[in-house]
Design brief:
binds protoporphyrin IX containing FE, calcium, iron, Ligninase
């Protein structure tokens, strides 16, 4: 049973420790309400902004039906999908008055975009999300980026990312060739992020999402390998392990991640996340801010509505560690506590 619950991976790696215990939730307990029955999931009656109320049902469809209340394959794909949707935004195209991309949900609409090789592996999540805009009368962009922020929370330790709605219908096919390739040079990748409006510091925070990721198409011989030894947990272990280029069975190092950890262009910002308990907190905060920005690339931010109030509470790593380590670098995750927390959350969503 357990093996089907956490990222479909083994318990063995959970027994190892994770770096850092506390995940910063910018809203902390504000999601917990009187009427949610202690579940940490706001009900439609708890939601105060009428613009946000329709998204409660969208949230439940994504978190329950698609993610099954856990950090499953669909959740991981949804995080990557939010990057590949937003990452087609280009400041230079905007300045030149050309058709542009961005966080518009085009990957749910344009039948050609999902078939591009850079988007391999996201066909299933796209087919699952595709019916939701029509079903709930909301925009594709709002569905896609709500899925991305919910997916982060579905992974234990993932922070609450402020979540906005109000993206209009997709205007045009998004341009091709703009998603960074893992074999590209650091310089080219950094320039591409810069053209999206994403700083090196933000990019180094965002790639930490590889903590809960796996690869299938970079090297077929190592399909389904993960990018760190604790893929069930949203922790900073990915940064240190990649920098050391550890050779752990079942773990794959992306050429771009290895390069970021040593390039003079990126290593200072990368190294900020190699470390201790306070580092985990810094990363959680910076990741949440960078993901929020990514989810609005190319959008008129002033026209969007903050619907973070619909978001469920995050699962805090501090609640699933063996003991309080007093700030030590590597407090151990208690597998029983982790499973209990996952099962608790899962049972709520699958009701
Ligand atoms: C520096 C630019 C990036 C490169 C070159 C890159 C590259 C990749 C590659 C090659 C894979 C494996 C795909 C496969 O073979 O199945 C992957 C997976 C993934 N990436 Fe990235 N990535 C980058 C940035 C990001 C960002 C900014 C995010 C999100 C914030 C992200 C989230 C993910 C996730 C969640 C997966 C796992 C997907 C799954 O397990 O289905 N990546 N990435």
């Amino acid at each position: 049973m357990y093996s089907t619950v956490i990222c479909s991976l083994t318990l063995a790696s959970v027994l190892s420790s994770v770096a850092g215990v506390a995940t910063l939730d910018k809203r902390q307990t504000t999601n917990a309400t009187a009427s949610d029955g202690g579940s940490g999931i706001p009900t439609i009656n708890d939601v105060t902004n009428p613009v946000c109320k329709p998204f409660v049902a969208v949230r439940d469809a994504i978190m329950g039906d698609i993610f099954q209340g856990r950090c499953n394959d669909n959740a991981r794909a949804a995080i990557r999908l939010s990057f590949h949707d937003a990452g087609t935004f280009s400041l230079s195209r905007e300045a030149a008055g050309l058709d542009n991309g961005g966080a518009d949900g085009s990957l749910l609409v344009d039948p050609n975009e999902i078939n591009r090789s850079e988007n391999n592996g996201m066909q299933t999540i796209v087919s699952l999300l595709k019916p939701l805009p029509e079903k709930f009368d909301v925009s594709p962009g709002d569905v896609l980026h709500l899925a991305g922020t919910l997916a982060v929370i579905a992974c234990p330790g993932g922070p609450l990312v402020n979540t906005f709605v109000g993206r209009p219908a997709v205007k045009n096919d998004n341009p091709t060739g703009l998603i960074p390739d893992t074999h590209d040079t650091v310089s080219n990748i950094v320039n591409r992020f810069s053209d999206m409006g994403i700083t090196v510091r933000e990019a180094m925070a965002l790639i930490g999402s590889h903590t809960c990721a796996r690869q299938r198409f970079v090297d077929l011989a190592f399909a389904n390998d993960t990018f760190d030894t604790t893929p069930e947990i949203w922790d900073i272990r990915f940064y240190a392990e990649t920098k050391r280029n550890d050779s752990d069975p079942g773990v794959f190092r992306l050429p771009s991640d290895l390069a970021f950890s040593h390039s003079s262009l990126t290593q200072d910002d990368y190294n900020r996340f190699v470390g201790s308990l306070s580092t985990q907190e810094d990363w959680a905060r910076e990741y949440a801010d960078a993901h929020e920005k990514m989810s609005m690339l190319g959008q008129d931010v002033s026209a969007l509505t903050d619907c973070t109030e619909i978001m469920p509470e995050a699962i805090h790593l501090r609640d699933i560690t063996v003991t309080s380590s007093g700030g030590a670098v590597d407090p151990a995750v208690d597998p029983a506590k982790l499973e209990a927390e996952i099962q608790r959350t899962r049972s709520i969503w699958l009701q």
